[in-house]
Amino acid sequence: MKDEEVFLNYINENYDKVKSTLQIISGQRHQAFDEDIFHDTILRCHKTIEKRGELKDKTPYGITSYLIRSYFTNILEDKRSAKHAKRDLNYDSDNISELYEDWYNSNNSDAKNKILTDTFKDFSVLYLMLKAEEQFDQEHFYLFRLKELVPDMTYKKLQEQTHIKGARQKVVEVKNYLKNNVTKEEIKKSFYQAYGNFI
């Protein structure tokens, strides 16, 4: 099976899960999830893999990371295109300060570091979620995901909303596993492998 087919088959079989992950990360970034861009990203990724003739990491984690990274890249491109289109229609002296701000941000190391830090935080959350999903059963992962990703979710609320016996203990088991088996250096290494070309 060709790599582009491996990619597309995985997305088709895990569409809801991948979409849900993107919606959660978008929410954490205070961004609206754009389903049109999501679909466009899937097609773009498929075409890119077909053109290159290979997908470097064909694991579930690798495919998911590639799609998510591409989605947020496309979101940024879409915003830039909309911004430039607006400028082309309304290019006057009122835009000078905005143009300077864009130039400053693009050349300011603090701004770049903030973007890098925010991206690493998002990546770390995704990495830990995928590691938890690989190691634990569906119930453990479901509880852990709710506790970590739903704002203001306490153990009491978790127990009340899920009615799952031992919910707190199950979440603690996942946390302890991640604490003892996943290091920050491991996450950093994976992060730079995924984003090295963009940094």
Give short descriptive properties of this protein.
single chain, 199 residues, mainly alpha, 2 domains, 10 helices, 0% strand
Please give the count of helices: 10
In percent, how much strand structure appears in the residues?
A: under 5%
Average pLDDT score: 80
Number of strands: 0
Shape: globular
Find the structural class using helix and strand composition: mainly alpha
Biggest beta sheet attributes: none
Number of domains: 2
Q: Explain this structure to me?
A:
This protein has 199 residues and is mostly helical. Helix 1 packs antiparallel against helix 3, helix 3 crosses helix 4 and helix 7 crosses helix 9 (167-181). It contains ten helices and no strands. It has two domains: 1-107, no CATH class; 110-199, no CATH class. Helices cover 80% and strands 0% of the residues. The longest helix has 30 residues, at 60-89.
Helices and strands in order, then pairings?
Elements: H1 3-13, H2 15-28, H3 35-52, H4 60-89, H5 96-107, H6 109-135, H7 138-149, H8 155-162, H9 167-181, H10 184-195
Helix pairs in contact: 1-3, 3-4, 7-9
